[in-house]
Structure prediction request, 351 residues.
Amino acid sequence: MPMTSSGNDSVRALEWSEAGLRLLDQRKLPGRIEYETLTTSAGVADAIAAMRVRGAPAIGIAAAYGVALAARERYAEDSEQWKQRIEADLRRLAAARPTAVNLFWALERMRAEMSRLDGDPFLPLLAAAKRLHDEDIAANRTLGELGAALLNDAAGVLTHCNTGSLATGGYGTALGVIRSAHKRGARRIFATETRPWLQGARLTVWELAQDRIPATLIADAAAAYLMRRGRVQWVIVGADRIAANGDTANKIGTYSLAVLARHHGVRFMVAAPTSTIDWQTRRGDDIEIESRAQSELLNDYFLRDDSVIDAWNPVFDVTPAELIDAIVTEKGVVLKPDAMRLRQLWGSGGV
Ligand code: MRU
Prediction:
């Protein structure tokens, strides 16, 4: 596999190559390992919408490269008017998926870079996208260590969805904590299947297997019994958007795990870079939750053609801050998060 990093982090979801943005097609994993190279901003928007690239930070990074590609296209068309012309590309990228705030955060960062530019924008914007990409990996490595330090002698951890190198620039958020913890000593790692898209069953266990990190896959419905049996001491998840009061939108089923964890005395950690915090959104109820196609649920096992049956397919939910024991970011750890405690991250610089 050519797109590799080092140590126990050998997978890369996306990488810039001379030919364009190289993506590992996540819809085809684990059966097929296929890459595509995107050379247009419309192609990047389509890859995000179709979830060939997915996971909040990875979506943001892909969009940043998408802005560089758009600038190349629009500047070639019209070197005077490219800043006006690129607006439609920015709108298309922003419309690709609604919940992960990293997408909008990355577009804002790229817009700020654009505003400073005169002349051909491609190379400066490409450099800005690469910086954003590198910063994400560095943030994940830092928050991974901070999160791992909280686990103490936990014998088992449970994670949900895919939050690893496939979902980020590299290393991962919740899976970054798990990677760092694994380096410190063996722990049993449990991963949920994460229905209906199966990010856990198709992606997380595949990614861990690439790095020879042992893990146990469970059906989503087995989580309560796993906790009841005392097999896990922490649930560790990522985030698509953290509201200013700590309420956290993440993959559907995260809220259920938080309720179960509280009932069973299991602690609950959200691991995310500060680019996932949406300071403009006061509480979780204000976060837009994406609904995807009914066909993701009404698949071949079920009554596809029965006109009296439909499906409800929200793909994220919101976990209230009071069910979260720790939000772990690269700027520090917020225990028992609320608006005031989260706000203190501002003071730690650079948020
Ligand atoms: O629909 P997806 O696969 O993009 O959802 C991904 C998640 O919900 C992840 O948990 C979240 O983006 C954090 S990834 C570091």
